[in-house]
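My current task is to audit a protein record that another person submitted. My question to you is simply how this chain folds and whether the tokens agree. This is what I was given:
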Amino acid sequence: QVKLVESGGGLVQAGGSLRLSCAASGMPFSMYTMGWFRQAPGKEREFVATLGWSGGNLDYADSVKGRFTVSRDNAKSTMYLQMNSLKPEDTAVYYCDAAGQRGQGTQVTVSS
């Protein structure tokens, strides 16, 4: 059974940084393309970033390019999202995704 557990969210001031983690189990992690999505209250789920099984094939939403960096450690079955220069509009629940499976999410709140 696939299990994805996000962590690392919190409250931060605008301009600050957070590092999210997504720990995976029950799946051959190193074979999966992984992604991050987010959903703000009253808004549709939004793509944030994705990377391929080897750490290549990176893609980012225009809204986070240059500020967010996605990475993975296949030996630890963990994916990361380093978020810098955070803005209030980054406030959302952040989810990791593996082939349509999602975790419970982690809340990120950026105060102005």
